[in-house]
Amino acid sequence: MMPMSKRPRATIRISPRANIVSGPSVRKAEVYRYLRVDAEPNWSQRVKEKEGEIMTIASRPPVTITFTSPIISAVELMYKRRVRGLVVVDARGALKGTVTAMDFIGYLGGSSYNIVRERHGGDIYRALNSETVESIMNPTPVYVLSNARITDALRVMVLNGIGFLPIIDKQGLPQGVVTEHDLVRHLVNKEISIKVTDVMTSNLVVTYSDDSIKRAAQLMSLYGFRRLPVVSREEGTIVGVVSALDIVSYFGSHTAFSVITGRNIEEALSTKVTEVMSKDIYTIKDSEDVSAAAELMNKLNTNSLIVIDEAGEAKGIITERDVLLALSLR
Fold first, then answer.
1. Against a cut of 0.70, is the pTM above it?
2. What are the domain boundaries of the chain?
3. Sign of the CA dihedral 252, 257, 260, 264?
């Protein structure tokens, strides 16, 4: 039986042995230890057995937006389509960049926030309606051609540490995208004899229940995690999970505009994370096989799980990237 654990409206105590960090976190699954001397990834037998054309597992058609569109249009589109990223195109419809939920998070609490502050004076309406997607997109996206093999896409994603990869034809027109989720779903089919505890991130980057969504955005931008456990400062328990897409949805659904009285974006960003987080906490035991984590992520459509010990206490987190490395490399 799959070790599924969905705990709606429950709390999970953090193990006293867990490391809640305030400095940059380090993942155990280092990509470089899987590389051969020629810098080629050392693919697992699983990858060799499931080789094929990348378009067979791609999400298509891709969700696109023009680079001249206002940022609010990108946020609304990600919210409506429930996607983590968009392919940015030019007037011809050719690939020009990518914009993801994490790029928007960076606009709210990362390196791009200076645009909001200096160019728009903190005005939420100007910052979202006057500024274009071009200002926050990745203008030099990594991509693969539509005739690429699955290993070609895997190589690009593993070596560049990315989870959202556009697929284009020879004319530069987007044909689809492939994500870590697509690859994990394709590769999982049997146990791989690697335990969750061996590849999980033992450093828990968390936000607290009395933190603002701006603080959560700052943490996401700093550490590169799209989901953060939300911890009760008083009880020391995990009470929910907040994701980049939760924050995108807060703005994309226009809820942010309904709770503010003026135009200052800081008022919207002061909203507590508990107002936008999910109270459903998904867990997996540290002793389970990584393939079980992959199956659970696929079933629940989530990109991370809280790792618990035998006592049911949280000791780490495992993400789709951790799983992908374990499934595809050796």
1. yes
2. 5-32+191-328, 52-179
3. positive
